[in-house]
Specification:
This protein is mainly α. It is built from 26 helices and 7 strands. A hairpin with a 7-residue loop joins strand 1 and strand 2. About 9% of the residues have low confidence.
Length: 555
């Protein structure tokens, strides 16, 4: 029998898995994916797997002290719980700097405290500045610096008051204050505590996921109630005699068969709903994303799933949408997914992830053939599939949905192309398909080097745009100086003097010369017949090999 728990205040046992142990506590993972530290002997009941059940303390560990033999008081339970929570906090704060801690907190409480992002960012900056030794790489403040920070935040207090406050703030009792400890203290009136923080998923929740999980819970309760009724009949049939026992046995054999089937169907349906809901692009580390945009590299985002997942089947849900693609790469992305043919898209992808998946490159070639086969109008020269073609290909890939379901999947999770009015253009390219199927990060894919002239062209075009902006800015400054020169008095005279000395001329000349150099490099790269990109080299060679083996292909 699997391990089950009935939490204090609830009526039903639910299946769980033990993922951590502390003295007096078990960390349990529920079927929904959430985890929670559960205190033993505190109104919580466990039953089932003997191997997972907590073992009684050995005789050697039992103190002979009269005080310790007595039943533990509520105070001793609090101390034990405090130690457990302190250990949990230490496991986070020893590894994460201030920005990462802020991101960790916002990931868990984005719905509640996203409005406080700037305030949390401000505290993060203040802690980094206060940490004279480690700065941005710091993880916690010594007591004296912590006291000064609280004063700077408008919480001045005497030494005695500070010591009292630190007993509440310093959860892991190391006489230091991390950002996470401060935030837990700050929001404690809202019911925020370590146990709640640690039990929350870092990628948040959506209404669809919440409803799907609730649907699963309700269905499991209904099934459990039916099984209980049936067990009562079976017990009556087993222990009874005569007509009553026979009647109970017959009833048990045909007991609410249709209801069982319907509930089992609903349970499978809820599991599918949960699986689909877990793929929502809204399930992201939003706190981390915000801190990265605000703090740069100090709050590193969740690592994008490795491209090696193409063959090992492992990975995490949560593909970023086109809205999260760096603005500098949006134009290139649209070109790749709407103008490159399938072979070129496969080569682009292979270039980016060559180190990870060069041994699995054949899978990309198979996708090229598959897309060309489904693109009945353009074949291998096509760049994308329409809605109907997409549905057929995905159905062959094992997706089982209604026509409406496929349309929603395409528009909501796969399609990155935009129509003229800014809405999804309802098309699927090979690159979009691969990014969706293996839950790969778009930003990561689009910002990786391609390994050849493509990088020169990409970087050159980016620099040309920057030069254009810088030139416009300097022209604006020159025009402003000319207007200033028309003013009477010393201001006008000073501006005329600067213009006479060539204000902005040198900067504009430098930008003009740089523009010419960059344009020359870009033209040279674009006109070069030499292919250095490893993915392009492989896919072109594979195309030639296939053509030789299939001489009638494409005719």
């Amino acid at each position: 029998m699997p391990l089950e728990v009935k939490l204090k205040g609830t009526d039903e046992f639910v299946s769980v898995e033990v993922v951590g142990k502390r003295r007096g506590y078990l960390r349990l993972k529920f079927e929904s994916g959430s985890t929670k530290w559960v205190e033993l002997n505190a109104g919580n009941e466990l039953r089932g797997d003997d191997e997972a059940m907590p073992k009684p303390p050995s005789k050697a560990s039992v103190s002979t002290s009269t005080d310790e033999k007595s039943a533990p008081s509520e105070g001793s339970k609090d101390v034990s719980a405090s130690r457990v929570l302190g250990a949990q906090m230490a496991s986070i704060t020893r590894k994460q700097n201030y920005s990462q801690q802020g991101a960790f907190f916002l990931n868990a409480y984005w719905n509640e405290y996203s409005k406080d992002c700037e305030e949390i960012w401000k505290v993060t900056q203040m802690m980094e500045k206060s940490d004279l030794k480690n700065g941005k790489n710091g993880k916690c403040l010594e007591e004296n610096m912590a006291m000064r920070l609280l004063q700077d935040l408008g919480m001045p207090m005497s030494r005695t008051a500070f010591v009292t406050a630190m007993k509440k703030i310093d959860i892991n009792n190391d006489k230091k204050m991390s950002l996470l400890e401060f935030l837990l203290f700050k929001y404690k009136e809202d019911g925020v505590d370590v146990e709640d923080l640690m039990s929350r998923p870092q990628d948040g929740m959506t209404d669809d996921l919440t409803n799907a999980i609730q649907k699963q819970i309700d269905t499991e309760k209904a099934l459990a109630a039916l099984h209980e009724e049936k067990e009562e009949l079976l017990e009556q049939a087993k222990s009874g005699v005569g007509i009553a026992a026979m009647k109970a046995r017959i009833q048990a054999e045909k007991f609410k068969v249709q209801e069982f089937k319907e509930l089992e169907h609903d349970l499978k349906k809820s599991e599918i709903m949960i699986k689909k809901a877990r793929k929502s692009p809204e399930l992201r580390e939003k706190g981390t994303e915000w801190f990265v945009s605000r703090a740069g590299d100090h709050a590193k985002p969740k690592k994008a799933q490795s491209a090696s997942a193409m063959t090992d089947g492992k990975g995490e849900a949560g593909t970023d949408k086109a809205e999260n693609v760096d603005e500098g790469w949006r134009e290139e992305l649209q070109e790749v997914i709407r103008q490159f043919n399938y072979v070129q898209q496969a080569g682009f992808f292979l270039n980016a992830y060559w180190e990870e998946i060069n041994e699995q490159a054949e899978a990309l070639w198979e996708y090229c053939l598959n897309f060309a086969e489904h693109d009945v109008k353009n074949g291998e020269d096509g760049s994308f599939l329409d809605e109907d073609q997409t549905a057929k290909l995905l159905r062959n890939e094992g997706e089982d949905r209604t026509a409406l379901g496929f349309r929603k999947l395409l528009a909501g999770e796969i399609c990155l192309g935009k129509s003229k009015v800014g809405k999804p253009d309802k098309k699927m390219s090979l690159l979009e398909f691969v990014l969706w199927k293996f839950q790969l990060d778009i930003n990561d894919c689009m910002t990786r080097d391609q390994g050849g002239h493509s990088d020169t062209i990409r970087k050159g075009k980016k620099r040309l745009k920057e030069i254009e902006k810088e030139t416009a800015a300097w022209n604006g400054k020159v025009e402003a100086m000319k207007e200033k020169a028309e003013l009477p008095g010393n201001k006008g005279i000073g501006a005329k003097h600067q213009l006479a000395q060539g204000f902005g001329k040198k900067d504009l000349d430098n930008l003009c010369r740089e523009k010419e150099r960059v344009e020359k490099k870009v033209r040279k790269a674009e006109n070069s017949d030499e292919i250095k990109e490893p993915g392009f080299c492989w896919i072109i060679e594979r195309q030639q090999t296939y053509a030789q083996a299939n001489p009638t292909h494409g005719r």
